[in-house]
Design a protein that fits this description.
The complex is a heterodimer of chains A (about 600) and B (about 300). Chain A has about 600 residues and is mainly alpha-helical. Chain A contains 29 helices and 2 strands. Chain A has a two-stranded antiparallel ribbon. Chain B has about 300 residues and is of the alpha/beta class. Chain B contains 12 helices and 10 strands. The chains are: A mainly alpha (about 600), B alpha/beta (about 300).
Chain lengths: ~600, ~300
């Protein structure tokens, strides 16, 4: 919308329109600048290896195309009213975004940009000037510094047309627009994962033909494109016309919770979860096991942070205790002291971590909020340093760590082949599943108990909780210890998954990762934590295939998006949603100004810090 | 022995003496108000009693037990409960859950029993839930038990705070400005309700209030603080006529103007006469010399 004065005189309108067009130009330049940055930083170049639709468009090209369309879309939003104006505005914005890249083509080789920015290579110039598409040959001659880059106009022209397309998109009714966006998005994602989906399908007779038709090793083939678009269209039509979600919500509670509905649904879900790793080969079962492992630890931290509001950033300390306990009790390094089976080592590791939690917790649990975070962070670092120290080397192996930790079945003497359903990673997966079930059970039971209420009360307003007779240190210790126990359990399982424990795996990233899982998934909500683990751990592992350098970039973007648009998490608990959007509804009571104590935290501040 | 006895309590924050040599008795079963201008130290006094602050000098005893250096949760277990000037409910919990938290100290199940859902734990939870519902109905929150505390209207939130405090089965209840922000009708209801708490449940009430209607209506004794010191104590009639009190609220000129022109109206005069006849709430020796109409303090304790 224009930002000009709101008079209705002719000159007022003119002024408003002029400032609108100015905005259109600026939008185009901004998108162009972003495209330029992304190009010079190398994202486009790397992603150009990766096809979305085989032989048609790569991810890198898609990024540039989308920047032009995006410029057009936003430009149309900013342009003055009227369809013609909007289209012209979108074309201009697209033109500006493309012009920036055209400028790069014109100036770049002359300035020998490639010397400072290695990504500004000939291949890049070829890419953005459309050499392949226009069939220009002898590009080497074009870039000898004296020759004129003939097709420099390419980005600008493409930008203009795509910008206009973006403008058209903005004028479409929302239903159509959503469909198009959904189609493009799904195509991109399936294109990215085509290779991953193809390999297992090639191995089974039934699916190998389909795999060859639909997927190339790199991107979708045309039949696959049509299939994806067809499915998207179908699903969308069903969603819009039949409105399944609304109808489900409107069902009476008795129907939704009726045993005849819940039991089969639960059975199917259970079956799916149990059979999940069996459909995959290669590295995917390991990824699934790792996701389950982190979900397990997430559930543990969910009790400490999600229920009791204790900002524990030193989770990795207990993880280390669990991992090293298992390593010492079943590994084959010199420092190992026993060779016990897994059903002995795991409980011992859990209890050891719990004991550690008590030990570390008691002195510090009087500390509040952010300061507790720092102290626990310190603990994590102390443990990490101790793990690789020479001081403890005779006991726990120093920087080399401990190796030779057997998988669960191996520890009781059962050898299993790699392809069997009980292969190493799958064993870990099932152990993690069982542990997750145990934790979830404990968490649910505790939440509706005296202790759970005390935890939530402490999280909401510690001082008032204390004034109601709750012993803060005792209650907090229990939360801290339970969280520590499950961190230790996670560490134990981790040690068995990778067969060894190295101090390099004991680092602050583990702690932070688990906190991120809870935040993205939804604090306090058990399905949310599982979803968080899938998103935070599973996706980057899958992205390793596609763009290894950028998985943390995508990761960071996902984090920012979730925290900005959905701070309560992807699948929050009822309370989480209420807490995060409390400011949206006018339910605050009036109260006299002076607080109860000079350093009193208001209820929202304490829940915010508990929820940080 | 009074239920709550304060002797020479002093609380300092650096250079500021918020409570200064305060001595005060609260008899069991009484409803007493603490009033005074803003900043007089009333809430600080409450916080000292409840254990949020530790007094620097003097002593506070509840039922003979010295409260100094006791943690707030210990003090709560001695039978003291309070509400807050700015409502401090557990917003994300339902009304029922808030009251259940109040009952924390009276429940015995530990976490393992909770996980295993032992019969004794289940029985205890069921009983606690029933009690919570009963308390919520008692404070006037029928039908709203399952609403989130932060979604309740303001008046209901005040009631819930009282309900939660009642969950602790207190002997003595500190109410910090319970009618703040209420309209006259709600104020009148709350006043009756407070009296009911004492009459039905035998709870001793100590009240901080600014709304003089409430103070004069409900209090059996009034203690007036200014700058952390007790400047007057007595019945409502005595306090209304106390020069120092008026001075504290309205300034010296006003006190002279008011005292000079003051004449008790008919009702007042009857009240005074009746009180003196019945000998009820006779001022304690040493605090307000007998026969003194204005509650003037002749000497400090």
């Amino acid at each position: 919308m224009s930002a000009g004065p709101t008079t209705t005189t002719a000159s007022g309108t003119l002024q408003r329109d002029l400032s609108a067009w100015k905005q259109v130009f600026i939008v185009g330049l901004l998108f162009g600048g972003a495209a330029l940055y992304v190009t010079l930083v190398g994202i486009v170049g790397t992603l150009a290896e990766r096809a979305v639709i085989d032989d048609v468009v790569t991810v890198g090209e898609l990024v540039l195309l989308l920047s032009a369309i995006g410029a057009g879309y936003v430009g149309a939003l900013r342009a003055p009213a009227g369809a013609v104006n909007k289209i012209i505005g979108s074309a201009i914005a697209g033109l500006m975004s493309g012009a920036v890249l055209s400028l790069l083509i014109l100036i770049g080789p002359a300035l020998d940009l490639g010397e400072y920015l290695p990504n500004a290579s000939r291949d890049l110039y070829d890419l953005i000037s459309g050499a392949e598409i226009l069939g220009v040959k002898n590009t080497a001659e074009m870039w000898n510094g004296e020759a004129f880059p003939h097709t420099f106009w390419f980005p600008a022209v493409i930008g203009t047309s795509l910008g206009a397309l973006g403008g058209l998109l903005s004028l479409l009714p929302r239903v159509a627009r959503n469909l198009i966006l959904l189609g493009v998005g799904t195509l991109t994602i399936t294109g990215l994962f085509a290779g991953i989906m193809r390999s297992p399908m090639l191995q089974h007779e039934l699916t190998s033909n389909a795999a060859r038709e639909l997927f190339a090793s790199n991107g979708l083939r045309m039949p696959g494109v049509f299939l994806v678009l067809g499915v998207v269209l179908l699903v969308y039509l069903v969603w819009v016309l039949i409105e399944p979600k609304r109808r489900y919500d409107e069902l009476p509670k008795e129907t939704k919770e009726h045993p005849a509905v819940v039991i089969p649904a639960g059975a199917i879900a259970l079956l799916f979860v149990l059979m999940l790793p069996l459909g995959f080969t290669g590295f995917i079962p390991s990824v699934i096991a790792l996701v389950a492992l982190y979900a397990l630890m997430g559930l543990g931290l969910n009790i400490t942070l999600g229920l009791a509001g204790l900002l524990d950033l030193g989770f990795v300390a207990f993880f280390a205790v669990g991992a090293y306990t298992v390593a010492l009790l079943s590994g084959t390094s010199d420092v190992s002291i026993a060779a016990l089976p897994f059903f002995v080592t795991i409980p011992i590791a859990t209890l050891a971590a719990m004991g550690f939690g008590l030990l570390l917790g008691l002195p510090i649990l009087g500390i509040r909020g952010d300061y507790l975070a720092i102290v626990t962070l310190g603990f994590g670092e102390i443990i990490a340093i101790l793990a690789r120290s020479d001081l403890l080397k005779p006991l726990i192996g120093g920087p080399a760590g401990i190796t030779g930790i057997p998988k669960p079945l191996a520890s009781i003497g059962i050898e299993v082949g790699a392809g069997s359903w009980l292969s190493g990673p799958n064993q870990i997966y099932y152990v993690s599943l069982i542990s997750m079930a145990v934790i979830a059970f404990i968490a649910v039971r505790l939440r509706d108990s005296r202790l759970g209420r005390a935890w939530i009360a402490i999280r909401e307003d510690e001082d008032v909780a204390e004034a109601l007779g709750i012993n803060l240190v005792q209650t907090k210790s229990l939360a801290y210890m339970l969280g520590a126990a499950f961190a230790g359990l996670g560490g134990a399982v981790f040690a068995m998954l990778f067969g060894s424990v190295q101090p390099s795996s004991i680092n602050i990233n583990v702690s932070i990762l688990i906190v991120v899982i809870i935040i993205i998934g939804g604090m306090g909500s058990i399905p949310g934590v599982v979803l968080g683990a899938i998103v935070v751990i599973g996706l980057p592992e899958l992205f390793r295939e596609i763009a290894p350098e950028y998985r943390f970039l995508l990761y960071g973007i996902a984090l920012i998006l979730v925290v900005r648009w959905r701070p309560e998490g992807l699948m929050p608990s009822r309370v989480g949603r209420q807490e995060m959007h409390a400011g949206d509804t006018p339910t605050e009571g009036e109260g006299p100004a002076p607080p109860d104590r000079p350093d009193a935290e208001s209820a929202s501040a304490s829940s915010a810090s508990g929820g940080a | 022995m009074a239920l709550l006895e304060t002797r020479n309590a002093t609380k300092r924050f650096g250079g500021l003496t918020a409570v200064n040599d305060l001595s005060f008795d609260l008899e069991e079963g009484a409803i007493v108000s603490v009033i005074g201008p803003n900043g007089a130290g009333k809430t600080t006094f409450f916080n000292c009693i409840a254990g949020f602050y530790q007094i620097d000098e003097g002593s506070i005893t509840l039922d003979g037990v010295e409260l100094h250096a006791l943690r707030p949760d210990k003090i709560a277990r001695l039978g003291l409960s309070r509400t807050y000037q700015n409502i401090r409910l557990f917003g994300g919990m339902t009304a029922t859950e808030n009251v259940l938290v109040g009952q924390h100290q009276h429940l015995a199940a530990n976490w393992m029993q909770a996980v295993l859902h032992t019969p004794s734990q289940q029985k205890e939870e069921a009983e606690a839930l029933e009690e919570a519902h009963r308390l919520l109905d008692y404070v006037g929150l029928e039908g709203r038990h399952d609403l989130l505390a932060q979604n309740l209207p303001y008046g209901d939130q005040r009631r819930l705070e009282v309900g939660r405090a009642l969950g602790t089965s207190p002997k003595i209840l500190l109410l910090d400005e319970p009618t703040a922000g209420m309209n006259p009708a709600e104020t009148h209801e709350m006043t009756g309700f407070i009296r009911q708490l004492r009459d039905d449940l035998g709870i001793t009430i100590l009240l901080i209030e600014h709304e003089m209607r409430v103070v004069m209506d409900i209090s059996e004794r009034i203690t007036v603080l200014d700058y952390g010191e007790r400047i007057a104590e007595g019945t409502t009639a005595q306090i209304q006529r106390n020069k120092r009190v008026i001075e504290a609220y309205l300034g010296k000129a006003a006190s002279e103007a008011v005292i000079g022109e003051y004449e008790p109206d008919e009702d007042e005069a009857d009240q005074l006469a009746a009180a003196e006849e019945a000998g009820a709430h006779a001022p304690k020796p040493g605090l307000a010399p007998a026969g003194d109409e204005t509650g003037e303090l002749a000497e400090k304790d």
